């Protein structure tokens, strides 16, 4: 409790909010790509640019952690939070890239559903990060992140099952399984964000 009385660098909150908003921007672009599947390669490149911006923000957070004596929360937790947020956007970008690399003609309905789940999860992440100064409010969005991760697992399992039931072209099955797995991994990383946030709350309330 004593550390809370010491001066601390409040700019971390702004940086984490920027990082979360950037992830949300990437998730919206992914959702829009899957819902309106045109001009794929330039839109995938645009998502990559958002991911690059996320890397820059993450580096800024890590650099500030290395140069700041008193941090708002445990230094290791803040480092983990920055890296896990970055991972969410990395997997969003990877999902979009696979659509272009594999020359996918159209997203499936399951893929669109997962893109919408990812967007909803990133909205919950933004809300949770926005409550870092009010930790008593953080569990609502954390629980929503966990709910959405469970939903994504369910959709992904059904999507993969449909691939093998349909007995389609083997190459297409391999492509789509990887895409589904990549989309689901983005939500797994979101759940890891929730776990770090819950740890921060437990240690500081």
UniProtKB/TrEMBL annotation:
InterPro entries: PhoU-like_sf (IPR038078), Put_Phosphate_transp_reg (IPR018445), UPF0111_domain (IPR052912). It comes from the Bacteria. It holds the Pfam family PhoU_div. Belongs to the UPF0111 family. This is DUF47 domain-containing protein.
């Amino acid at each position: 409790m004593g550390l809370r009385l010491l001066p601390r660098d409040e700019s971390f909150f702004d940086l984490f909010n920027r990082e979360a908003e950037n992830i949300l921007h990437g998730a919206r672009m992914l959702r829009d790509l899957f819902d309106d599947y045109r001009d794929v390669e330039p839109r995938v490149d645009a998502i990559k640019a958002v991911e690059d911006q996320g890397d820059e923000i993450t580096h800024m957070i890590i650099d500030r952690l290395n140069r700041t004596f008193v941090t708002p929360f445990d230094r290791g937790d803040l480092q983990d939070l920055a890296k896990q947020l970055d991972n969410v956007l990395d997997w969003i970008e990877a999902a979009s890239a696979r659509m272009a690399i594999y020359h996918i003609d159209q997203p499936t309905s399951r893929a669109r559903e997962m893109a919408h789940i990812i967007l909803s999860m990133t909205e919950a992440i933004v809300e949770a990060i926005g409550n870092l100064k009010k930790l008593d409010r953080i569990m609502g969005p954390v629980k929503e992140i966990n709910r959405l991760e469970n939903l994504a697992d369910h959709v992904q399992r059904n999507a993969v099952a449909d691939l093998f039931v349909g007995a389609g072209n083997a190459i297409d099955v391999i492509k789509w399984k990887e895409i589904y797995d990549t989309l689901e991994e983005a939500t797994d990383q979101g759940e890891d964000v929730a776990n770090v946030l819950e740890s921060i709350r437990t240690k500081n309330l």
